[in-house]
Amino acid sequence: MIIVSNLGSNVNEYRALVDRCRSGDREALRLLPRSCPNPKCGRRLHGHGWSTERKGGLRLHRVLCRRCKKTHVVLPWFLAPHRPHEMDPVDQAFRLRVQGHSWYQVADAIAEFSLATIRRWIRRIHDLADKVVAILSRDARRLDPELHLDTLLRPFTGDRLKLLDAAIAAFWLACRRIDPSLDFPASRPLAWCNVYLSTAAPATGTEQGEAPIWL
Ligand SMILES: [Zn+2]
Predict the structure, then answer these.
(1) Distances in Å between the alpha carbon of 179 and those of 143, 147, 182, 190, 191?
(2) Which strands sit side by side in the sheet containing 46-51, from one edge to the other?
(3) Pairing between strand 46-51 and 70-76?
(4) What residues have CB less than 8 Å from 75, skipping those under 6 apart?
(5) Which of 107, 113, 159, 186 sees the fewest Cβ atoms within 10 Å?
(6) Ligand 1 center–CA 41 separation, angstroms
């Protein structure tokens, strides 16, 4: 599966980090994911090489869990899983749709992708929204049992994208009760979600297996 990690905020920072990791820089290596993403396992992961299959020649790290006998790919958070492009336009399309812009306004704002592609992203987000809202709500309640989650989410139950947006904001509210210095990733909520979901266990009531990741 894919483990999305915060390894620099753009291509240049990521490349620099990869160079440091590959030259054995311990501080850089510590930033790579260390435990198995399988919620029933959690054992330490072992490095399993660097691939170059990604468009643009970016190297992606592979890790191996010896207990599960599975390799996983470590994806920097700004890249869209299974796609050769970055997450920023996906986040932008999501934001514009939540704000009520028409498909044509969204397509005008994100000129480098076709309307069909943008609609496919949004459909995927729409399809996964319920699962993600369930995971974020569960974890927000764990972080802050006094959070009035139902009050925060109820106004948006008729619109999955708005509900997802509200669940992300509610989750951050819960995080900030614990650490007020946390910065909300306002322009990259879905990219951030991917980082979170790649380590979160599926919520109860949703099917077992991997936590959902956009695209
Ligand atoms: Zn494992």
Answers:
(1) 11, 15, 6, 21, 21
(2) 2-5, 70-76, 60-65, 46-51
(3) unpaired
(4) 2, 3, 4, 5, 60, 81, 194
(5) 186
(6) 5
Residue that the structure tokens 């704000």 belong to? 99
Nearest in space to 90 (alpha carbons), one of 69, 71, 112, 68: 112
Distance 39 CA to ligand 1 centre (A): 8
Angle at 167 between CA 165 and CA 173, to 5 degrees: 110
Distance 66 CA to ligand 1 centre (A): 7
86-132 pLDDT per residue, tens: 889 999 999 999 999 999 999 999 999 999 999 999 999 999 999 99
Q: How far is the CA of 65 from the centre of ligand 1 (A)?
A: 5
* Structure confidence at residue 23 as a pLDDT band (50, 70, 90): very high
Q: How far is the CA of 208 from the centre of ligand 1 (A)?
A: 16
191: its two tokens: 């990219």
Answer whether residue 35 shows pLDDT above 80: yes
pTM of the model: 0.83
Helix, strand, coil abundance in the chain, percent, nearest 5? 45, 15, 40
Report how far residue 178's alpha carbon sits from residue 14's, in angstroms, rounded to the nearest whole number. Answer: 29
Q: Any bridge partners for residue 60, and if so which?
A: 51
Alpha-carbon distance of 105 to 47, in angstroms, equals: 44
